């Protein structure tokens, strides 16, 4: 069985991809029972320090370890 997992963070001030699109994609994953984590980065745009600080990397690592059974 193949699994499609998604871990996503999105800035609520992103001018390139409106945050509603990220919410919609998250909803599709949830509807289909797929493993997904979605986090809104309040005040952030498209990228920046909030997306790659130590706490964020630790959270992503824990999600992947949990989902992939590592």
Describe this structure in words.
The chain has 70 residues and is an alpha+beta fold. The protein has a two-stranded parallel ribbon. It has helices at 19-31, 54-68, and strands at 6-11, 36-41.
How are the elements arranged and paired?
Elements: E1 6-11, H1 19-31, E2 36-41, H2 54-68
Parallel strand pairs: 1-2
Features:
70 residues; alpha+beta; flat; single chain; two-stranded parallel ribbon
Oligomer: single chain
Beta content comes to 15-25%
Percent helix among the residues?
40-55%
Span between termini: 17 Å
In the sheet with the most strands, the strands line up as 1-2
- Point out poorly predicted stretches: none
Characterize the largest beta sheet: strand count, sense, and whether it forms a barrel.
2 strands, parallel
Produce a short descriptive summary.
By secondary structure, the chain is an alpha+beta fold. The chain has 2 helices and 2 strands. The protein has a two-stranded parallel ribbon.
């Amino acid at each position: 069985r193949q699994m499609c997992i998604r871990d996503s963070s999105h800035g609520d001030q992103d001018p390139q991809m409106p945050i509603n699109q990220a919410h919609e994609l998250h909803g599709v994953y949830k509807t289909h029972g797929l493993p997904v984590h979605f986090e809104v980065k309040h005040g952030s745009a498209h990228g920046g320090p909030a997306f790659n600080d130590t706490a964020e990397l630790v959270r992503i690592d824990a999600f992947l370890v949990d989902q992939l059974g590592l």
